[in-house]
Amino acid sequence: MGRARRWARSRLAGSGIEDGEPLAETLILLISELVTNAVVHTGCPAVLRMLFGGGAIEAQTVRVEVADRSARPPRQRHAGGEDTNGRGLELVAGLSDRWGWRPEGAGKSIWCEVDREQPEEAVCGRGASRGPVATRG
């Protein structure tokens, strides 16, 4: 996981998203969850991709994709209060603006997107009313 986080921090800094910025911390947490899920549930290494889209940097969307070798669809569980596992995709759904999965080769790719907020929105934090859209494809 450390290698994935270091790589992601380097890519983020190279695209103008500084370490310690709330967006960077959210993306690092999402990457940690998705990579951990892929490795734990498949027992194999995962492929991490980060894509930057949009026009002006204020409107930029960051897409994280983690591909693994399992064709089995992800299953979002609902962990109980004392459970120590089962919150990964709930966390991804809560922190990202959109997430989903798609078949890729013999396996699958799970992705999430986070929209870079306007500076005045960033002061107030992520809006609770902005729910994720889980899609396949």
Structural overview:
Residues 3-110 form the Histidine kinase/HSP90-like ATPase domain. Residues 67-87 are annotated as: Disordered. Keywords: Kinase, Serine/threonine-protein kinase, Transferase. This protein is an alpha+beta fold and 137 residues long. The protein has one domain: Heat Shock Protein 90 (2-Layer Sandwich), CATH 3.30.565. 35% of the residues lie in helices and 25% in strands. It is built from 4 helices and 5 strands, in the order ααββαββαβ. The chain has helices at residues 2-14, 22-42, 88-95, 119-124; strands spanning 47-53, 61-68, 98-104, 107-115, 134-136. Strands 1-2-4-3-5 form a 5-stranded mixed β-sheet, covered by helices on one side. Strand 1 and strand 2 (61-68) form a beta hairpin. Helix 1 (2-14) packs antiparallel against helix 2 (22-42) and helix 2 (22-42) runs antiparallel to helix 3. The protein is globular, with a radius of gyration of 15 Å. Residues 120-137 have low confidence and may be disordered.
